[in-house]
Amino acid sequence: MTIHLITGSDPRLVSDKVSDITRELIKSMATDENRSTILETHDAAVASSQEREDAIRRAVSSAETMSLFGEERVVVIREISDATVAELASLVAYLEHPVDSTHLVVSASGKLAKSVSDALKQAGATVIGGKSEFQGKKYLNQYRRLGSAGIAQAVQLLARADIDLRGGKDLGEELTMEILVARLCRMGGANKSTRTTRAASAARTTSPKRR
């Protein structure tokens, strides 16, 4: 039995890490069972309090239920950071006596209630930072490539597209997005071309004159 808590400020990276952990857990199992019988995923990132509580209760019920063949299973509860203490009560109670045959994976892209944080800690949960060094470097390189002026221009293009999608222009969603992508691509290409031109100019200026 293992318990994993994946946290981070970027929901997409957190979600990717949950998928990675889930795949690794299933791969590590010596079982012939179909994936659908050993994996259950429940999403607590829903609008209403009742829906969140129901999702968490269903997940806990799944975690407490033995596999049909008495083997290991994986239960995932995605995005519990918006849930209240009352909505998380069933999860906290489960963590006091987790089932040996269940691997529980919980994710949150926001701050957790103290009661569930303490319960996860006492249950021996492994905490993982849904962060990606590669992704961070990619963002940094992109920022350096575009520069502050380029980033500001990209934000303006996104804001303009958002207005158009809300009825600012009667172009249709697909055409609006195609125009946005074309402008962003052109902006990136122009930025690269400008840097290349500047570098060549600087090289000509600093290179020694032939006698």
- Strand-residue fraction? 5-15%
Q: What does the main sheet amount to?
A: 5 strands, parallel
Mean pLDDT: 80
Our Rg estimate from Cα atoms comes to 25 Å
Specify the overall morphology.
elongated
Discrete helix count: 7
Strand order of the largest sheet: 2-3-4-1-5
| Percentage of residues in helical conformation | 55-70%
Low-confidence stretches: 196-200, 202-211
User: Count the strands?
Assistant: 5
Distance separating the two termini:
78 Å
The computed structural class is alpha/beta
- In N-to-C order, the SSE pattern is EHHEHEHEHEHH
Give a verbal description of the structure.
It is a single chain. By secondary structure, the protein is α/β, with parallel strands linked by helices. It has 7 helices and 5 strands; from the N terminus they run E-H-H-E-H-E-H-E-H-E-H-H. Helix 4 runs parallel beside helix 5 and helix 6 packs across helix 7. The C terminus is likely disordered.
Question: What is the strand and helix layout of this fold?
Answer:
Layout: E1 3-7, H1 11-27, H2 35-38, E2 39-43, H3 49-64, E3 73-78, H4 89-96, E4 102-108, H5 114-122, E5 126-129, H6 133-168, H7 173-206
Parallel strand pairs: 1-4, 1-5, 2-3, 3-4
Helix pairs in contact: 4-5, 6-7
